[in-house]
Amino acid sequence: xxxxxxxxxxxxxxxxxxxxxxxxxxxxxxxxxxxxxxxxxxxxxxxxxxxxxxxxxxxxxxxxxxxxxxxxxxxxxxxxxxxxxxxxxxxxxxxxxxxxxxxxxxxxxxxxxxxxxxxxxxxxxxxxxxxxxxxxxxxxxxxxxxxxxxxxxxxxxxxxxxxxxxxxxxxxxxxxxxxxxxxxxxxxxxxxxxxxxxxxxxxxxxxxxxxxxxxxxxxxxxxxxxxxxxxxxxxxxxxxxxxxxxxxxxxxxxxxxxxxxxxxxxxxxxxxxxxxxxxxxxxxxxxxxxxxxxxxxxxxxxxxxxxxxxxxxxxxxxxxxxxxxxxxxxxxxxxxxxxxxxxxxxxxxxxxxxxxxxxxxxxxxxxxxxxxxxxxxxxxxxxxxxxxxxxxxxxxxxxxxxxxxxxxxxxxx
Length: 413
What we know:
Elements: H1 3-16, E1 23-24, H2 33-41, E2 45-48, H3 67-75, E3 82-85, H4 100-106, E4 114-117, H5 120-126, E5 131-135, E6 139-144, E7 158-167, E8 174-179, H6 180-184, H7 188-196, E9 205-207, H8 209-217, E10 224-225, H9 226-244, H10 273-288, H11 293-297, H12 318-329, H13 336-355, H14 366-390, H15 402-405, E11 410-411
Parallel strand pairs: 10-11
Antiparallel strand pairs: 1-3, 2-3, 4-8, 5-6, 6-7, 7-8, 7-9
């Protein structure tokens, strides 16, 4: 097999395989080693092995393996050696401008190359009720809602997976990052749509490190997104209440491990006043309106109830009952207003700003910073309640989930 035949076999395998795979050296058949070395030296073929990466069977990212190492892979028949056509060898490959991200793979770009987009692109999907969003703080995915999935298909249809990126690697300004292999699976019209939202200065943005670790090394983050941690804290508080023999503090809880949660209870990807107000509304419903007054009026072992009425014989609100109940039944007493009550009252206070007036929408990255402050302070308040309840004699055997046991691993992405 001569140079031309070897190169043709490698290019054909790359272009014809569903995921642009390389040709394993073991499958090349009869070939002249020196001719293959010449192709590598002429930078027409790239040879990678397990010595160079975890998975040589896909061109995942830029490896920049030296020519010496590539030649050694071939001469020594190193385990897992796979051959790829170089960009130079693919110059004559068929062009496909109607599918720009597929075309980049055809040209030899790595599958996990990240392209950055304005966050508005995700809002197009989120504002369509036929779609649903699975979001983990630093990464997410868009799928088709079950009722819109064609019959006789297995499982939900994933539209795209994406990660969160930051301008110059710093918060708050966010962008959306998606890999070429994900983008290439979109239809031609959708690829062109995404192309319109592509950020012009790609080098200004850096993908979240947790997302990068998962994509490039397969190492999953051990941190917990603060939005998930908040739900876990609420669920744990209700379990502690059960052990104490009193009604649950929250009338309804949500699992952090399924995506069915209150609308708006998520990071503000596209920082507009409307999206921020949706978040405030969800926080008020999730925390303030969700408090169970019966918890604070019940008696139990080492538990005294709060007074239902104030000095004017009016029924107290749930926040007032919580404040009194926490003060009566837990310690220390002195930091309850600052640590617990003020952050929770602040959710309602800020929520009331947009509640009683019409206003115009606006875009401002400060909404991301304000959201971060609100969720962090509210989380500390809920965590403080959980910590105080866990000290009750009947709660010693209640295990605190590892996901919330280390405050340093609770993250706002």
